[in-house]
Amino acid sequence: MTDKPYGVDPPARPVLRRSLGVIDGIAIAASSTAATTSIGIGLGVTAGVVGLHLPAIMLLAFLPVLGIAGAYTRLNRVEPNAGNGYVWVGRSLNPWLGFMVGWVSIVATIAFLAYTTAVTGSALIQLAGDAGIHSLGGLALDPGSTAQTTLLGLAVLLAVTLTAVTGVRTAARLQTWLLVFEYVVLLGFCGYGIVTGPHAFSLSWFNPFGIPSATALAQGLLLSVFCYWGFEAAFTVTEEVRDPRDASRAGLITLVTMVLLFLLGSVAFQRVLSEEELAGHGAEGLAFFGERLASQPLAALPLVALMFSAVASLQAGVIPTARGMFAMSRDRTLGPVWSRVSPRYGTPAAGTVLIGALAAAVAALALVIPRLADMIMATVNAVGIIVALSYALTALAAAVRFRGLLREDWRQGLRAVVAPVLSAAALLCLGGYLCWSFYTSTDHLEISPDNGWFLLLTPLVMIASGLVAAAWAKWVRRSPYFRTGTGTDADAPRLLATH
């Protein structure tokens, strides 16, 4: 096996087709963030932790995520790459850490796809119930059944995977129309809920000091960071946009849109629903919200929006993950199948299909958790810790790469170095505290979303698998990434100043 860098001859380097603009990037990033799903499901889960302080926790979580977004934007400006964090962390910090960022992002997204598969199936079954269909072939349909929702969601996952194969432009157009419908429904129902809700508005909703405990604050923040997760999907298609700066614009526009939607949704939910109703309806929260505001068939519109969000989120999860694995395969840290570009569609078609297959396999394995709500809570907690780690390392890579700006321009240095470091520190402390609280919350291991050791073991297994995969890439594949991925680009600050 040779140690020659992969694709040292430029024509041999796999290239993706450039066909996207800033609107397409927004559609992909917004679909990946899935505001409707986060509002419909995430708000109820988070309310079960922080009570009636959803607006406060959403605003508080936005601050470090905004610092992370700034880091992504600056790094993308000087080195646009489909691998983004994997490449930037590997170059500026350490290749092992860079590989870990790429790996855990892939594993976390596959886990997210598995749970979104069940959410999609749940929304479809709820819609069938609203249409008067409560059984099929003698089987009673249950939107809370992990088995039923997963099997139905798998059919949808297959369809959106095939759509993603045929071209990212086609997928982005589909996601744009789905988003338009979702946001019109969200704005209409949430606006109406804010005006007519029976529960009085209170400024205490925006007070984070009213959250019951430090553990509740930490877990609530992590759940909220998870809600913002996905804005960086805009950067995974940076090699497919006509201007790499459009990827940065799309990511920031998406993030600002998300915080406004989350604030609107959290205030509306708390105006319409009591704390017990918020925390007690889990995956069916948005449907319950709609039923409190309107009668059928209008009450079904939020549920249709949730279904559209879940479908778009499935597709948006497949697309950036396939691009991340494309970049890793290009560096020979993963096998060659992931960097095969379809001559017909200009996409990593084989890798996209494999991502869908892996997500389907994980969704099937999740059937060991009997209830959909349990599956959601277990997945969100695990992925939240992983997302916090990945974001923090990328922010630190930006701080290291642009550290020269502290001497050259202190204002730029504050934005490019200090803000990312503070954001990274906040997320690392948050994740560390939550891990400690999980560890000390029990004295035995049990496969349950209420068991701290299980919640801690899940992200640890994700990280451990990354170490094994990195060792294989370095010593078996002999990837040049582990030799050339280190070091700081000394020209980065000057390049930044020229844009």
UniProtKB/TrEMBL annotation:
Key word Transmembrane helix present: yes
One GO location term (cellular component): plasma membrane
Gene3D superfamilies: Amino acid/polyamine transporter I
Keywords: Cell membrane, Membrane, Transmembrane, Transmembrane helix
Key word Cell membrane present: yes
Subcellular location: Cell membrane
Transmembrane segments: 21-50, 56-75, 96-125, 145-165, 177-196, 216-238, 250-269, 299-322, 349-369, 375-402, 414-439, 451-473
GO molecular function terms noted in the UniProt entry: transmembrane transporter activity
Recorded topology in the membrane: Multi-pass membrane protein
InterPro entries per UniProt: AA/rel_permease1, APC_superfamily
Name of this chain's protein: APC family permease
